[in-house]
Design goal:
Layout (H helix, E strand, L loop, with lengths): L20 E7 L5 E7 L15 H12 L22 H32 L1
Antiparallel strand pairs: 1-2
Amino acid sequence: MTGTIRFEPDGAEKQGPITLGYALTRNLDANTQQRIVVIGDGDFLANTYIGNAGNLDMGLRIVNWLIHDDRFIDIPAKTAPDRSLKLTTASISVIGFGFLIVLPLCLLGTGFVVWRRRRRR
């Protein structure tokens, strides 16, 4: 697909940024603060979407903020899991030899033993 991305005001699009939620506070007296969070759609905390893009973390942070546990509102950086496999040439050779020669020979040997036993009956 080629072309440029642009906003079309005649269509059904809304020009961003779009507000998804509000966090509101007000002081009731010198020691008491009232907090409320209004989110556009609460489905991000539904079981279907709880694992998507940090929805669980956001929901927990919102609840912690609402109950005045501000010390728990930290957003840790997510680290990518290590997905690379580093093998030496010797281990690559052993794995290749095992799968290309040893495993087929074992299967052939097992097949021969089963054939031989059935033939003797």
